[in-house]
């Protein structure tokens, strides 16, 4: 059984661009974001308040947030620490994404902290955000596999999800950071998380390194998931997950879902036009199935 509707959380402006070596002009990012919204996207990660030394592409985060927040849309920014939250509080943004991996080694590479130190640091920050009425999303990296540690046990992923549930987050975005999971693993983990964490919004975040993301999304839908992170044009990758390619392409997810009668509310033509805006600045080809055909026509 499939859901009637799914919600796409567009992560292109954040996950999609953070790994691009050449700086994408701020005005281009803004037009990309506004066109994505115009295509029907209602939830989006706009940018990250992370260290500009670690992720130079996100150095214009304050400017992006100031220009791109709109009513009727849930606009997230990522924040890794207290400094990131201070930057959030200087804006009108009301939705924050925090992030930690299940794998200790990944956390050391990505945020220079062990898993436990990261959680200890985030706990008071999440409490403060909730006290102030923010929507909080926790992104759980390396939920299936780690590029350094290999296979991750589902119980370890569940344990980390439970820590965030106890902190009172609104949403968990559970990620196959390196695009290594298969559909049976996706179905099993999301079935487990759905049954153990019934009160939380549960979102699946698949990278498409091995071209299994669409199959994983279908399997996750069958496990009851109706929220999916994806990136227009399939852009993206984490600078600290070597070998991982982009997120599953939003247009491919929308096409698959709509063909199966699952509504997304997203206009594929307008979505493709949003990709047209950013494509000249992207260093690798945009190779999603849907967009390739769009370009031919
Ligand atoms: P650190 O070097 O250990 O931090 O980095 P620090 O506290 O020692 O600070 C060093 C300097 O950075 C200081 O400046 C701080 O002020 C500054 P200095 O005194 O040297 O001039 N700084 C900041 N500046 C702006 N904003 C901030 C901030 N924090 C410190 N928030 C840190 C630790 C966490 C900051 C760093 O490791 C970092 O920024 N990491 C982020 C990495 C990242 O963005 N990764 C990608 C996002 S996660 C992802 O893609 C996975 C996901 O898609 C799901 C999946 O697919 O798995 C979500
Ligand atoms: Mg990601």
From TrEMBL:
Q: Does the keyword Metal-binding apply?
A: yes
Q: Which Gene3D superfamilies match?
A: Aldolase class I
UniProt-recorded Gene Ontology molecular function terms: lyase activity
Superkingdom as given in the UniProt entry: Bacteria
Q: Which CDD domains match?
A: DRE_TIM_HMGL
Q: Which parts pass through the membrane? A: none
* Domain Pyruvate carboxyltransferase per the UniProt entry, residue ranges: 6-272
User: Which SUPFAM superfamilies does the entry mention?
Assistant: Aldolase (SSF51569)
Q: Which InterPro entries match?
A: Aldolase_TIM (IPR013785), HMGL (IPR043594), PYR_CT (IPR000891)
Per UniProt, which keywords does this protein have? Lyase, Metal-binding
In which family does this protein belong, per the annotation?
Belongs to the HMG-CoA lyase family.
Q: What is this protein called?
A: Hydroxymethylglutaryl-CoA lyase
